[in-house]
Design goal:
- This protein is an alpha+beta fold and about 350 residues long.
- The protein contains 10 helices and 7 strands.
- A hairpin with a 4-residue loop joins strand 5 and strand 6.
- The chain is elongated and about 95 Å long.
């Protein structure tokens, strides 16, 4: 087999290599093709410090400071990363059975998943490419964060307005359909604001015992509420049809763009990606944009209009009551943002 020494992150590889050599001195003069760390024991998921190293067709496994096992790659098949609850394991098929190589917390998820792909490619092509280091360990020149595998764009530093402008250029041919759906949003919100008024009339003028009105007026209010409910539902259906129509047109355009881009790639570029990764770009990634246009964006617009409409009605009814309700909103928003960031960090540390 042809070997080309590559690194994960230079300082980490040197540190891992030194620790491995302390335990296995015989590897001091060898070229390390790949190294990685593990933080949990395989048997009982106990915290520990371990390492794995690929050296000359053999995978050396160190767990809890001791040499645990050495795998001959000729006996292995199908490397993959198996994610569990708060942990991820790098596994392979060894002599027809599943073998757990190492286990780590969720901070190792991306590393294990990517290394499993590279090891599978290594078994197929008998070479560990240098391009792996260039594509997997690139960092943003502005903020220093590690870029996502296969991407050269940092989502923290990219100009979000440019992304929306590009999306608008794609959606421009369907602007009238989108405009119609936005108008329907305003109509639905306005009609929903009528329902509390009808409820107030029903309670104050017809249900309250000391101020009960005639049956005719009572029936008229009930009929109005029923008709309003039908009209709101019908308008919501029309709005959904308009959004789905525009979303489907946009997704077809996007997938056509991505497919044409894939066809323009050279054979060497395509060979660096698995068929599943390419299909994910064409279907799943574009599907996320469709989901944003059809569901998430519509939900943002709807909830924003409801907040504005309810606020106006509250101030028209009693400005003091409106202030009592609206003043806590900044505090609630800040608390929500704080707990979201806390749980986000906790998830990635688990």
């Amino acid at each position: 087999m042809k070997h080309e020494t590559v690194t994960l992150i230079p300082d980490k590889k040197a540190y891992y290599r030194d620790r491995i050599i302390e335990i296995l001195p015989a590897l001091a003069d060898k070229d390390f093709t790949m190294v990685l760390s593990s933080s949990l024991t395989v048997a009982d998921s106990r915290p520990q410090t371990g390492y794995c190293a690929l050296v000359e067709d053999k995978l050396y496994i160190i767990e809890d400071g001791k040499h645990k096992d050495t795998l001959d790659l000729s006996r292995t098949r199908e490397f993959h990363a198996d994610s569990g609850i708060g942990q991820v394991a790098l596994e392979c098929m060894l002599d027809g059975e599943t073998y757990i190589i190492c286990r780590g917390d969720m901070s190792h998820q991306s590393e294990y998943a990517t290394l499993a792909k590279r090891l599978n490619k290594y078994l197929e092509q008998q070479v560990f490419e240098k391009e792996y280091d260039k594509t997997h360990n690139r960092s943003c020149p502005q903020c220093g964060r590690q870029l996502q595998h296969g991407s050269h764009i940092c989502m923290h530093c990219v100009d979000k307005s440019r992304i929306f402008k590009r999306l608008w250029e794609i959606a421009r041919p369907y602007k009238w359909t989108l405009l119609a759906s936005i108008v329907l949003f305003f109509l639905i919100t306005g009609m929903n604001m009528i329902n509390p008024i009808l409820n107030r009339i029903l309670v104050d003028d017809y249900i309250t015992p000391h101020n009960a009105g005639g049956f005719r007026g009572f029936a008229l209010v009930i009929l109005s509420m029923f008709v309003l409910h039908i009209v709101v539902n019908a308008t919501s259906i029309l709005r959904s049809i308009a959004l789905i129509f525009a979303g489907n047109k946009i997704i077809v355009h996007l997938r056509d763009m991505v497919f044409n881009k894939v066809q323009m790639l050279s054979v060497s570029k395509i060979s660096k990606r698995t068929a599943g990764e390419i299909m994910q770009r064409v279907t799943q990634d574009t599907g996320e944009i469709q989901n944003f246009v059809v569901h998430r964006l519509s939900n943002i617009i709807e909830q924003s209009l409801i907040l504005i409409g309810v606020s106006i009605m509250l101030f028209m009814t009693d400005w003091r009551l409106a202030l009592m309700i609206l003043v806590p909103i900044p505090l609630v928003s800040m608390s929500f943002r704080f707990f979201w960031r806390y749980t986000h960090r906790l998830y990635h540390r688990q």
